[in-house]
Batch of 2 targets.
Target 1
Amino acid sequence: MPAPGANLRINGPRLWDSLMEMAKIGPGVAGGNNRQTLTDADNEGRHLFKSWCEAAGMTMGVDSMGNMFFTRPGTDPEALPVYMGSHLDTQPTGGKFDGVLGVLGALEVVRSMNDLGVKTKHPIVVTNWTNEEGARFAPAMLASGVFAGLHTEEYAKARTDLDGKIFGEELERIGWVGDEKVGARKMHAMFELHIEQGPILEAEGKDIGVVTHGQGLWWLEITLTGKDAHTGSTPMNMRVNAGLGMARITERVHQIAMSHLPNAVGAVGQVKVFPNSRNVIPGKVIFTVDIRSPEQAKLDAMKAEVIRHAHAVAAELGLGIGIEEVGHFDPVTFNPGLVKTVRAAAERLGYSHMDIVSGAGHDACWINRVAPTVMVMCPCVDGLSHNEAEEISPEWAAAGTDVLLHAVLETAVIVD
Ligand code: HGY
Ligand code: MN
Ligand code: MN
């Protein structure tokens, strides 16, 4: 099948306008976004996205996890569709582009296909996956994980947020429980365009990241139980300080990652301290360890070291300890054939590019289990993400979406 002509390009200004329009929904306090999953802002963003997709002639399907699918018909209705998409939910202090570029970039591909009068053999489906971030309801990539069979729908719908709200009830509340069975859809291929969320592409001066692999991840939620006591009158040798245990384990997580460099990262991002009063020694803490590596052996070794050390600290300080695995996926290898297609598209379009391993987790990491999958990345300024100051250039957005257009058209097969 001949590749699409290099002159086929998306409409960059239209894409940028849509990104800025979506960014108005669920605004943050510092120029970014707080459009967390299953909130009213998420609902508003979903409706705006739906209106745009329907205006582009696509028809909507929604599954029982609220995953949204918009279909542009192909000439062969028997042919499995080519999917592309990402997520519209954001971190509480998120940027305007994490996830959103992949969803609205996919929409722009269809809008451009309409402008160009392009027909394809395979149908095309634009997707918004529910709760990719895992910020409000852990784990991350929750709904794509149910779709790929990694989690049961029952497990997912029982997840709770910090206020005790339940996922299934919140999905019901915003009215996005669809009638499709999760995971019933079969895919010819799945593409996800995403900002890198790291510094490599910008530092190397590359416009496009051809994502060959994704690093693996563990989220370990540790609960330490000590004893509430007065911070002033309690002698140091009588304290059972859960907060001290958390501090020691947090420091050790950093050291463990450093001891496994390169290709290893680790941090503690979410912390809950009880009773969280200035003059009470914390009797209980719950915190999540996030460790990652593209190398299976390193990921396994770091997990074992974190658990071993956490138990040693608890024993040393006389603390009770519980460790729950609240998120995990092994390192991912994306489909080599689609990787080649993405690389060839960047080459044909004249964009500088390099192979890259994704540092962040993405819905594509789960969908890769059930369909041929690949990612396309564009740089972000200073590699910053999960921060309201997240920034990309319109040129980077357009380049990534041009490559998505070409790779999807080649895979979906243009029909004259
Ligand atoms: O955690 C991640 O890597 C993704 O941003 N959910
Ligand atoms: Mn993302
Ligand atoms: Mn994210």
Note: The first helix runs from residue 12 to 23.
Target 2
Amino acid sequence: MLEIKSEEKVREGSIYGQITSLGHEQLVMCYDEPTGLKTIIAIHNTVLGPALGGTRMWNYASEEEAITDVLRLSRGMTFKAAISGLNIGGGKAVLIGDPKLKNEAYLRRFGRFINSLGGRYITAEDVNMKTSDMEYIAMETKYVTGLPEVRGGGGDPSPVTAYGTYLGMKAAAKKAFGSDNLSGKKIAVQGIGQVGKYLVGYLVKENAQVFITDIFEDRLKQVSKETGATVVDPNAIYDIDMDIYAPCALGATVNDQTIDRLKCKVIAGGANNQLQDEAVHGKLLLEKGIIYAPDFLINAGGLINVYAEYLGGYNRENTYKHAEKIYDICTAILEKSEKENIPSQQAAIEMAWNRIESIGKVKLPY
Ligand code: NAD
């Protein structure tokens, strides 16, 4: 069985130590002098299929930070794909530098590096990457998804991510409150970017009492005007009287500092890696009786969207139908968590890992 190690333990190792403790297959570092491209591609697990996961561009403070990020994110993709029933593995790429570095040559060079992996890694968008960037990458490799709809792609995955997050939130609400009806529930959405704003739309439609926060004031004003949601200061969001906390901005917001401040009964949001340390904070939430909808499951709509594109013949309606399975999977995870008295994140990882192990065995005999 897969051991969930604390962040502290993972980080104290060498690069090989980290790869070994997180279970990666491959870590590739690439450099191109003319374009200034520095990229790290992590392939976590390819038992179910090629590693599919987005590329994040970020001005990392250090190489160590970039490596930690790509290792953590790619591992999350393995579990996300496995728990969602997709036949792909987990991978991720990071581009190190200011997003302003991006241009056609830079992105095409990146495409060539991806191509050199022969299909073991397939990319898509993540932070600071757009569908138009994927078009440049596609000039050099076929191992790219997240292309615009006019090019036969699935377009922006965020609406599907938000839909899955909304359904996962409803499943968690059913467990916590006995009903999945969100009408009247006080819900705090942290970050109203691509995912958050669509999520707010679903919540308002269901007559939830929605509170929003973001570091962009103009965005807050706009979404508040359009939806009637109440604006809260970014630092005050953890302290408000709420039933559900929906992190939709950064990761690691559920940590030693915030857990005691959160008065909610449910945490369900679209952000990746919400638990600062899944070995520690999942347990704390269980002890506090807060129902946690595992992030990598309920935000899997975006991956489901690019997976549909990867299979070919993208169809938006079918993709939304596929994302609807998140409700039942979330329910099953929360039931396992309750029955075995284990954190829901652990329950989800165990379910994902069981699928990888059992399908791996199916593939053995030819
Ligand atoms: P985004 O950049 O469009 O939105 C993030 C929002 O969070 C921005 O409006 C930003 O201003 C705000 N923000 C940043 N720091 C904040 C803070 N301290 N307090 C409050 N708000 C803050 O990104 P997105 O595409 O909406 O993704 C949001 C999260 O969901 C990320 O963690 C991402 O990895 C995850 N995710 C996104 C998708 C997708 O389809 N877009 C899929 C899976 C997971």
Note: The first helix runs from residue 7 to 11.
